[in-house]
């Protein structure tokens, strides 16, 4: 049984581990392998400690999927930071990762449903997220969850490689 709940300070290490595992498996072939091999959970702990401490529910915070064996996934939620969107009405899924050994077992779907419920509770009318171009697995998952590309794209650099991110959006009705 997987429980979706608000992240607590004790979850930070598990979130960081899930984040690194998600990158190591999800970005194979999309990012340089030495970058993926060099990722360490301890590098991510400060970021997630701050995100958990900065929660302002239901508008901002991290949700975790707890499967009894630890953190099976997490979603970091916040008002949008996009210049062409309104933070009062648009929630952004800033990070969304599921432990690879739980892929295709419903954990991600449960987690995304809870994230969208938080956005609705916060009064957001739109949800967005950014996904790396070429990340077909993630794009297909987001489409199954009701998201679609809205035409916005932005460049980024990861491990010295220039990538392009695509924005996905869905109306929250």
UniProtKB/TrEMBL annotation:
Q: Which residues cross the membrane?
A: none
State the Gene Ontology terms under molecular function: acyltransferase activity, transferring groups other than amino-acyl groups
InterPro entries given in the database record: Acyl_CoA_acyltransferase, Bact_Acetyltransf, GNAT_dom
**Is Transferase tagged as a keyword?**
yes
Concerning PROSITE patterns, the annotation shows: GNAT (PS51186)
- Which is one Pfam family of this protein? Acetyltransf_1
Q: Which domain of life is it from?
A: Bacteria
Spell out the SUPFAM superfamilies in the cross-references: Acyl-CoA N-acyltransferases (Nat) (SSF55729)
Q: Which residues form the N-acetyltransferase domain?
A: 2-173
Q: Which UniProt keywords apply?
A: Acyltransferase, Transferase
The name this protein goes by in its record: N-acetyltransferase
Species source reads Actinokineospora fastidiosa
């Amino acid at each position: 049984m997987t429980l979706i709940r608000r992240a607590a300070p004790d979850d930070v290490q598990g979130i960081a581990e899930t984040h690194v595992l998600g990158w190591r498996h999800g970005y194979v072939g999309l990012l340089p392998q030495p970058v993926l091999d060099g990722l360490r959970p301890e590098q991510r702990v400060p970021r997630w400690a701050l995100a958990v401490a900065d929660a302002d529910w239901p508008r901002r915070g991290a949700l975790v999927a707890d499967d009894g064996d630890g953190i099976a996934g997490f979603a970091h939620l916040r008002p949008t930071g996009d210049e062409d969107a309104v933070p009062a009405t648009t929630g952004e899924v800033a990070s969304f990762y599921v432990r690879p050994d739980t892929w295709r077992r419903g954990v991600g779907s449960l987690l995304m449903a809870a994230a969208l419920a938080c956005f609705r509770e916060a009064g957001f009318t739109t949800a967005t997220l950014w996904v790396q171009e070429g990340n077909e697995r993630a794009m297909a998952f987001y489409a199954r969850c009701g998201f679609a590309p809205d035409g916005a794209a932005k460049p980024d650099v990861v491990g010295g490689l220039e990538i392009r991110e695509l924005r996905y959006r869905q109306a929250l009705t």
